Target: EF-hand domain-containing protein
Amino acid sequence: MYSAYILLIICALHQYNYGKISAATSAHNSTTKSKQAEKFFSHVLDINSDGMVNWIDFESVIESIVSKDEASKNARLKVLRKRLEQHFQKFFWELLKVGDSNQDGDIDLNEWLNVLDDVVNDLKKTNEFPDWFEDLFKSLWRANEFFNEKAVLKDEFANMLIAWDIDENTAGKLYDFITENGKKAMDYHLFAILMKKFFLNEIPNHILNLGRA
Model:
């Protein structure tokens, strides 16, 4: 569930980026994608529906994944909850640093869209994500228990993406594409390259869109 939540953030960024690309040829598509980004803000980030994203929202997400009650009864879940808190705290504080323009401790919708703009534009210029955003991908990777994380198998990769609501067929095609039909080992480095290609791709219905556009 944790990795699925992070993927929602990634997909929202991709939807916003694709919407800006589409705006050059279709105002309708631009409006649709903008609405998707706003819907993501309202339904996924703003958990308590107060119009702002703050630490209370992230605490609610953590509680829904591993409750305090569950963590108090199980040592493994206690460690997991602690790691979740650390990952989300780092992400939230960095989000505030780059996006909280009025320094009120909250992120409103306009501030969120500005953050998306900056992340995607920086990637296009440097082919690199900001360090704080790169940590999301590392967390995604480490949230899985691979037999060998330096050579992840296709079925392991598919199982990871199924948890993100991506069907097995799409996952298999994506694995074959990025590994060049198994010529390259699927490790974190290749996964990071995949995420960059995911954001930079401008071709509708391409396999790199993870079946989402």
